[in-house]
Every structure is written in C-alpha cells, then in structure tokens.
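Q: Could you fold this chain for me?
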Amino acid sequence: MPGPIDLIIWSLGTAFELLFVVCSLARKSFLRYFFLNLYLLLSTTVSIGRFFILRSYGQCSVQYMYFYYYSDALLTLALFVALISLYSHVFGELRVGDYVRWGAVFLLLGTAGFSYAVVAQSAERLSTSFAYELSQNLYFVGLVLTYILWGAVLKLRETRTRLVQIILSLGLYFSGYAASYALMNFSGEFSIIRYICPAIGCFLPLSWSLTMLRYTEESRLAPARLAAVPR
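A: Sure. Below is the predicted structure, expressed as structure tokens.
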C-alpha cells in the first residue's frame, strides 16, 4: 500500500483535478475547454481505479500491472488530444483547424505504428510493452508539440490571458516531469525524488484552476508582456 506521503499527494492531485472542472462549470467554460476537462475527469477516474486495485491486489499483481500501463497510455492519449485542442484555439482565427486535426491524426497513427514496431519482437509481452511504449512516445511528442505551440503563441503575439497561461503551465509541467523522471532514474526508487513526479502532477490542475478563477475569457495581456519576436 502507498505510504502517507503518497496518499496526501494523491488526495491533493485528485482534488485539484476536480477543482478545475468545477471552476470551468462555474465560469461557463466547460465546453470551450472540453478536452482539458475530459482529460482531468479521466485522470480522476483512473486515480481512483488504481487506488482500489492497488488496495485489493497489491502493487506486484498482474491486475495492477495491466491496469496501470493501459490507463497510463489512455491518459497520455487524452493529454495529447487536449494539447491538440489548444492548437485549435491558437490557430482558430487562421482557419487552419482542419489541417491541425488531420495532422494530429497522422501524427498519432505514426506514433502508434512506431511504438508497435519497437515492441513487435517481444511477442510474449506485447500487450503491456505496447501500452508502455505508446505512452512514452506520445509523451515525448506532446513535449515537443507544447514547445512548438508556445513558439506559435510568441510569433502570433497571442494576448488571451487564459489561453497563454494554460499553455505555459502545460510547458512547465512537461519540463518539470521530464527533469524529475530523469533524476529519479539516477537517484534510486526509495529516494525522496520519487515523490517529485506525483507532486508535479498536482501542479497542472492547480495552475489551470487558478487561471480559470483569476481570468475571464475576455482578459488580455499587454503586448509588451510577451517576448517580441521579429516577423
């Protein structure tokens, strides 16, 4: 079973995820940021499911292993879709939404095909290996796409405060998670570093919730607050 620190971090993360959904409903922005809400609702459901399976079968059980890897792949896919929805927001006025969606579909299919090719020779563990490989590859693609999106925000001089803050939080989340994961690989399983990844997971829904509470959809940034990028 998880220790007390794990349970505290888990409880906070779940509470922050639900907080964003509540804030979106209160601000009447649930449909506008539907895929962000869908991702956090799915994350909440998965967290609760993992907790009960962990308590019932234990961390080393086959049931927990399958549920963990497949749910992790599903969450990464949901975050990928949420990220693409932010592309639609940024490029919406340029009328390139269809290109963004089709590009995302081809990128997703390409990532899935690459993941399958990597694990195709491990037939005895293909099901869990594919889920793990797909999750890791989608995470890497999402990291790159987030920085590309931030570059587009600067280039287009996007001033919608909510949108800018949401994208910036996502970029910080990806960066922090990647750094902490690397540190955890070097520091060992029982180091305090292992708590950083789950703690960073609390940052994203909390940051999005504060953004939703502090700013309306009409809020705009002063142009000078965005980095000037030569055209």
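A (continued): The chain has a mean pLDDT of 81.
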